[in-house]
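Structure in, sequence out. Go:
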């Protein structure tokens, strides 16, 4: 493979280098074609290969079929039309010869998927505190950053009130809010939360940051990254900045000690052979739920509480995250 056409492996901060394979449409503009050159795969890359089933799809469409994973063994240009093609060792042990670039997409060497999407963080109406369902539309103050979010009902309540901007100021403790600048947004307007890519500097495999436990966002480009396979089998070691400490380094508390000891004892009694299980309480947050009058206990709302705490407008609780 032509090294100039490879993804920029030495520049982890270049977002181009982290992008998974993009297949240009047949009528793609020159710009896209140049871009696609950078996505040429190298030998050793994990790929997903499309195997069409049924009728030939119309040009530019993927058509039916399935995706199977493999590893690029050789990357070269076809003699007839100069197209980028690959010999690929499939996961089932069969080798596919001269697979066209357009049938391949780069996948993560750890999870074998291309895009790793995260569930977007939950969103709440800042007036009634109700969770805004992902598929509902909602209203958000204008501007690039966004900001105050309101559910549909609260937005129309405020808009219909005699002094909407005063209500907004009271809600947000800011005076510059104008109800007329709010924009109705839908799920598709929410930013997509997807993982970035990083390449191993030894075997050149690409993986998602979370899959490779990569935390080098702020490290210099000279700081090399090695995948766990190269660390285990090729004697490579990560720089101190990139080393992820083991979970057993996290501080213990009474609850985690108790859980961990009991679980280890139980596993031993069941004769389960495994390395020591670590349990830690990683967050411990005191929080308060607020009630709107309609939801207040005793007023027919959906939440029923014992009579001792009726009449409260807030309900305190503690939330813990415990990981094993
Ligand atoms: Zn992955
Ligand atoms: Zn609301
Ligand atoms: Zn590696």
């Amino acid at each position: 493979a032509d090294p100039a056409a490879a993804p920029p492996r030495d520049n982890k901060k270049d977002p181009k280098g982290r992008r998974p394979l993009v297949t240009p449409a047949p009528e793609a503009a020159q710009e896209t074609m140049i871009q696609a050159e950078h996505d040429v795969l190298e030998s050793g890359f994990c790929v997903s290969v499309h195997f069409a089933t049924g009728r030939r799809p119309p040009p530019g469409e993927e058509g039916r079929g399935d995706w199977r994973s493999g590893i690029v063994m050789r990357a070269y240009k076809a003699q007839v039309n100069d197209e980028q093609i690959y010999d690929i060792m499939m996961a089932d042990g069969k080798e596919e010869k001269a697979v066209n670039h357009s049938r391949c997409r780069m996948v993560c060497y750890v999870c074998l998927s291309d895009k790793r999407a995260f569930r977007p963080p939950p969103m709440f109406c800042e007036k009634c505190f109700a969770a805004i369902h992902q598929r509902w539309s909602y209203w958000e103050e204008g501007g690039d950053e966004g900001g105050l979010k309101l559910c549909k009902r609260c937005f129309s309540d405020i808009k219909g009130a005699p002094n909407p901007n005063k209500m907004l100021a009271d809600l947000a403790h800011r005076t510059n809010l104008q109800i007329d600048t709010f924009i109705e947004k839908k799920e598709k307007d929410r930013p997509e939360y997807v993982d970035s890519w990083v390449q191993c500097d030894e075997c050149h495999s690409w993986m998602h940051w979370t899959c490779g436990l990569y935390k080098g966002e702020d490290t210099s480009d000279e700081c090399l990254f090695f995948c766990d396979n190269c660390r285990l089998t090729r004697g490579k070691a990560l720089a101190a900045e990139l080393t992820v400490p083991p979970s057993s380094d996290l501080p213990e508390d009474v609850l985690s000690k108790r859980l961990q000891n009991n679980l280890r004892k139980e596993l031993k009694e069941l004769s389960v052979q495994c390395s020591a299980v670590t349990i830690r309480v990683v967050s411990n947050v005191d929080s308060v739920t607020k009630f709107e009058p309609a939801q207040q206990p005793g007023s027919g709302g959906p939440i029923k509480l014992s009579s001792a705490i009726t009449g409260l407008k807030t309900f305190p609780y503690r939330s813990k995250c415990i990981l094993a």
